[in-house]
Write a structure and sequence with these properties.
By secondary structure, the chain is mainly alpha-helical. The chain has one domain. Helices cover about 85% and strands about 0% of the residues. The chain contains 3 helices and no strands. The radius of gyration is 38 Å and the shape is rod-shaped.
Length: about 140
Amino acid sequence: MTTDLDSLHLHTRLLTQAEHWAQKGNDRSLLLRGRELAAAEKWLYDQAAAGRATLPQQQLLVRESRRAATRRQRGSVTVALAVALVMAVLAALTGVEWRVAVNQRHQAEVQRHTAQVQRDKASSLYVAQESTNEL
């Protein structure tokens, strides 16, 4: 008995929502979502399995609600993939920049070493020249 009453309440609620949705020009914000959509889909399935008819307005509301939910989900997946792609590109660029920085550090060390060798040579030449001048 409780199940029949629950089914009747859901039938009435879906019919009311379907009519309100139609009156508001099929406004997407009035579509079913989440648990409400899942309950409506289960109710439609149970009605069909029991051989009970449902109204076209109810079927349309549930069908359009599922389509909207699928579109939202696809949109979320698309955004997630785009974010992942951007992150992958940024990671690759970071790797390239890291390699450039390591190469530049190595070149700076070579140049520092070369400058030190030249300074030592110049210092040695200066000392040798000073020694020669003293003689």
